[in-house]
Write the structure tokens for this entry.
Amino acid sequence: MGNWNLPNDEHSFDPNFEDIQTLFLSGRITTMYQLVKRSPTKIAKLLGVNYEAYHNKLSNPEKFTEFQINLMALAFRIDPDIIHNVIQKEIVGKVKDRLKIFYEK
């Protein structure tokens, strides 16, 4: 992971993200879809997508770009690896299925 200097001033942290930060840091977020009811419009705006596109990414977390993962991590003031780990655990089955199809051809 890169060297991330998280902003420390209270004006650069949206209080709506405090619960999301706590949930990620405590390990209670195990799927990205768990964010669906936690400031979805605000997060969609942060990511520069509409609500429907954000909802689609929550259902298919492999569609989040590296930039979007890092942007969310900085906005939530967490290490981007935390989000990466959630996504990796969530998509491991899809990755294995795709690899199996590849080798069967």
Notes: DSSP finds five helices and no strands in the chain. The helical segments are 18-26, 40-47, 51-59, 66-76, 80-104. The two ends are 36 Å apart (CA to CA). The chain has one domain: 15-104.
